[in-house]
Amino acid sequence: xxxxxxxxxxxxxxxxxxxxxxxxxxxxxxxxxxxxxxxxxxxxxxxxxxxxxxxxxxxxxxxxxxxxxxxxxxxxxxxxxxxxxxxxxxxxxxxxxxxxxxxxxxxxxxxxxxxxxxxxxxxxxxxxxxxxxxxxxxxxxxxxxxxxxxxxxxxxxxxxxxxxxxxxxxxxxxxxxxxxxxxxxxxxxxxxxxxxxxxxxxxxxxxxxxxxxxxxxxxxxxxxxxxxxxxxxxxxxxxxxxxxxxxxxxxxxxxxxxxxxxxxxxxxxxxxxxxxxxxxxxxxxxxxxxxxxxxxxxxxxxxxxxxxxxxxxxxxxxxxxxxxxxxxxxxxxxxxxxxxxxxxxxxxxxxxxxxxxxxxxxxxxxxxxxxxxxxxxxxxxxxxxxxxxxxxxxxxxxxxxxx
Length: 403
Ligand SMILES: Cc1cc2nc3c(=O)[nH]c(=O)nc-3n(C[C@H](O)[C@H](O)[C@H](O)COP(=O)(O)OP(=O)(O)OC[C@H]3O[C@@H](n4cnc5c(N)ncnc54)[C@H](O)[C@@H]3O)c2cc1C
Prior knowledge:
Layout: E1 2-6, H1 10-19, E2 26-31, H2 38-42, E3 51-52, E4 60-61, H3 69-74, H4 77-87, E5 91-93, E6 98-101, H5 106-117, E7 122-126, E8 130-135, E9 140-144, E10 147-151, E11 153-156, H6 171-177, E12 187-189, E13 193-195, H7 199-202, E14 207-216, E15 219-230, E16 234-236, H8 238-243, E17 254-259, H9 266-276, H10 293-302, H11 316-326, E18 329-336, H12 338-341, E19 344-346, E20 367-369, E21 377-378, H13 383-399
Parallel strand pairs: 1-2, 1-11, 2-7, 11-20
Antiparallel strand pairs: 3-6, 4-21, 5-6, 8-9, 9-10, 12-19, 13-16, 13-18, 14-15, 14-17, 15-16, 17-18
The chain binds flavin-adenine dinucleotide (FAD).
Flavin-adenine dinucleotide (FAD) is lined by residues 6-12, 30-33, 38-40, 42-44, 48-49, 129-130, 157-159, 162-163, 166-167, 169, 171-172, 343-344, 371-373, 382-385, 388.
């Protein structure tokens, strides 16, 4: 039996290795790029946050939240780490549950997967972009840019649209649609947000802890606390990634309120600033020692306080205005940085058209899908790769008949 797999990314390689555990199966892995795991190599800022020990269905999103349950239960993070250990990867787990290769290099993850693929019953063809797929009487016929192949079963593991420069494309959605499958609306998730507030550019590169509340048409939409980073176009950093899902989608006004001292009460902060009135310093240094110096000056100015004034001359009203800005700066959000920059695609091929116990299509027997192409996306922190491993291994084992 020949199992064809389209896409040599995280889920496709996991599926190939799982299917090849059955020695009677021949696996054909088709990858359009020159190498497998191109996106994987760029994950986690080059460190690859390959899993999270807290991965559970509640960390995922999609129209049918229960779809991911089975794959994540049968192939949980702990088993993924055992599987990687067998492949030769030594990992470390941070207190947060995030798992990284001990080498701190995403390359290591790609390398051990590549070594694993060097099995007698796996045929890897790179530079092979699949442009058409057809159901035949006995299986499937796959047309690539460099040739065509027949297989008995077919797994689509083409990934999503996010991270376009790293290989994200519409390809998997198109191929699955050609079999009659449907796709939900695709949106960027885990993505940076654009803002027209001029302070962003002035604060470019500044990182700070922050409570971020996002409001849509005046109603609280999402919130989280963590590291925020200012960029010339707007806001980035883990806290923004965490709450960016579906922000700036649809019409209406999107605003975020930033609290730069979420653990300090307004009264305590006001007292801290009143103390500064006793010091021989100017308003340039009103927030020095409390916040990043550049951030302190931009916030003081945003509160309407002029620079280079003696702090002793600050009125109580001005001081309270600074408190209000430090703990509730309002920043207008204009857009996301889009699919090019997003780490994951929200939305995808409708999961109710697949069997969650096997990942097999309910419309076309012998056809499987796994990974990001399906309407499942995870939170920030290793959850998306965990979904790729879990769903990929489930699809591979099911197609290979070795569950
Ligand atoms: C910058 C960035 C950082 C990220 N960091 C993390 C992280 O640290 N932790 C985490 O959990 N997740 C992270 N993610 C998300 C994670 O990488 C993806 O969710 C995951 O790789 C999805 O796996 P996949 O197998 O579905 O798709 P992919 O890994 O994208 O693999 C799909 C493969 O299919 C190939 N392909 C597509 N179409 C065709 C075709 N027609 N013919 C042949 N081949 C085709 C592609 O070239 C690609 O190699 C990150 C994403 C990005 C963009």
